Amino acid sequence: MAPQFFFFFFLLVPSHLSLAQTKYTNITTGTTLTPLRKPTSWPSPSGDFAFGFLPHPANASLSLLAVWFEKMDNKTIVWCANGDRPVAADGSKLTLKPDGQLSLTDPSGREIWNPGASGAAHAAAVLDTGNLVLSAADSRVLWQSFDHPTDTILPGQTLQQGAQVFARLADADYARGRFVLALLGNGNLAMFPVAYPMPTHYPEAYWDSDTSGTGAFQLIYNESGSIDLSHNSTLLSVISTAVPGDHYHRATLDSDGIFRQYAFPKNEPGTGDWMVNQALAKDICSKLLSVSGSGACGFNSYCTMGPDERVACLCPPNYSFVDDGRKYLGCKPNFVAQSCEPGGEASFDFQVVAYLDWPWSDAESFSSMNEIECRANCLKDCFCAAAIYNNGSCWKKKYPLSNGRFGNDVSRHALVKYSTRSTSARPDQGGRRPDSRVWAVGASSFLAGSAALNLALLAACLLVSRSKRRRLVGTSRGVAGPSLCSFTYRELETATEGFSEELGRGAFGTVYKGALAAPDHEVLPIAVKKLECVHDDELEAAEKDFMNEIRTIGMTHHKNLVRLLGFCKEGTRRLLVYEFMSNGSLHKFLFGGPVPPGWSRRVEIALGVARGLAYLHEECRTQIIHCDIKPHNVLVDDGLAARISDFGMAKLLRLEQTRTSTGIRGTVGYFAPEWFKSSAITAKVDVYSFGVLLLEIVFCRRNLDWGYDLESETRPTLTDRAKECCRTGRLNELLGEEDEEAKKDGMRLERFVMVGLSCVQEEPWMRPNMKKVVQMLEGSTEVDVPPNMYSLTM
């Protein structure tokens, strides 16, 4: 038996016993649940668990049929019926039909799930163990969720030989994922990588209990929190996992492939959190080295352990995730593959990353070879994606790279090949943020664009190139960020026809429409922002800072940020070149037409802005605080998605932030109160401004568009009206007559308004961070109810 292993004891009501022997809540035939109509769930007798519908954490318009812990703010799911097939919240239902069948149907009436009980059920019940059971008229158990686990097991649950527990695909995706825990027929308990999307697993286990034998094995979870393995009713080994005090317990095969046992303090339902008690396979990065499959992370990526002791999947330098939201799909190169024609290696080089290895994917291996020879050998081989080198040994790696791992215990270093023409060398730092500086206010941005757009831009840059000073930022070793075109002032003057068509004007400069010529007589539309001029006495000091910040801006990648294409710096002139947004600003989109955008579109725009801000605050390698979030600084692209613009501007222009009403670089109506106090400016100023913007999006009304209140001699705001209408339950009064869709979506309308009001609280510490704002908007976590709003029913 492996020494670091925990085991399970079972106190479930077995199927041969009667439900009458235990306390339960009886749910009779003919009962129906729907996601949008109360009640949406059935509780267990104690209220510790509930079974019913929860909003999908990644899409609030979809619902999951699940069992969860009910008494905590984070409704932790322990079993899910339709993780692979979430249903629309509007129109789906669960029915215990008169014929005794429990059935989940979608809005069209198509059956999505039924338990396949062994007979006609007379009633259903959610027990205080978290077990969902169906019983016959004589109270015999016909079916129970404990016999069909998803990713979690609970105290009182047992697994028989042949049972499997699948990890979910991602933290916010309850579909069956890439790892499985199985109690095999020979008695060995093991964890395997799965050949996703099929349920079959690869043959090599990355953890096992090293037990086998004849006779019956059981995996049992004791009510006290210990987990046991028994053989022929004899306990083989036990490791106590008792946690002092009164706690809820669960054990989950998490989406990163690590099996963790958790405890949660019962006396802290609102403020507590799940604590990891023990973990199996916590060294998965080094142990999961399967000849088949991609490893712990996707192809062309590598695995390392983050500071929270969870797996972090990262891309090597000059690679990016195929899908940021689904990192298990792996990474793709940000450059065109090396040509196999003679001289194809001329524009390629290597980025060295210490402590990184891909143990498989070998094309060839060499001994008694120095590093220079190793580089040259891989460089000449158009099929060589990377080389691994260590003390005279060289391993050439082919696509796709698999089983990548990074850590101080890796004695080798990687030579990652990349093209010097289309990307910059950027070490990934093993998931660690190398720079803890905070940016205030925003200059431009970056949106991961299509390959066609990148190629068109590159061709346009080369086409307008007529100077030896022309270059692509990022072609030099060590420069961080994607390739940005460096333009002359004359070129941008020509591209904008003498800066003749003004698109907008703000505190930091004026934006003009322009166009760059691309191959095949195509035209690439651009937006050129002329920044405030730098004074001559600041020029020398500003030169280096400007380029450093431009490169850092170029490292931002998110679909809800406007893309920075290039720049110009000549003398005191500073210009930024952006991707052109044909639909203009969100201000024009919301308030510029006779009919406001539909409710569904406004919901997506609000979520897009929130996700973009969460990225700037918490996911960038260098945190960026925008400081001027308003509808004018959010643009709308061709697909009607929201793109945040104008971030990083103060850092670029070396502007000092002051707290006077004339010196603040922001907009009246969106200011956070701390701008006028002697308190630190943090990311919470953006949270406040977003709260105002969110209410404007919800109601299609300007915050300062309410006239003058003669009685109080004040100018009321939309936030004031929203608070008042929330307290009195009159939110529909703030909607236009034509906004029927929003009125029908009352629960989400109320949730969005409450999120907005939680963001505009006076004290910064009382406001949620943007990551939690996104979760609250999506419905994956409860809304923080602002003070004096507790009378509201969410």
Tell me what the structure shows.
There is one protein chain. The protein has 794 residues and is of the alpha+beta class. The protein has five domains: 19-147, Agglutinin, subunit A (Orthogonal Prism); 152-283, Bulb-type lectin domain (Agglutinin, subunit A, Orthogonal Prism), CATH 2.90.10.10; 302-431, Hepatocyte Growth Factor (3-Layer(bba) Sandwich); 438-579, Phosphorylase Kinase, domain 1, CATH 3.30.200; 657-778, Transferase(Phosphotransferase) domain 1 (Transferase(Phosphotransferase), domain 1, Orthogonal Bundle). Helices cover 17% and strands 28% of the residues. The protein has a seven-stranded mixed β-sheet with strand order 38-39-43-44-42-41-40, with helices on both faces. Strands 3, 4, 5, 6 and 7 form a five-stranded antiparallel β-sheet that branches. Strand 9 (102-105) and strand 10 (111-113) form a beta hairpin. Helix 7 packs antiparallel against helix 9 (684-699), helix 7 runs antiparallel to helix 13 and helix 9 runs antiparallel to helix 12. Its main location: membrane. Residues 497-783 form the Protein kinase domain.
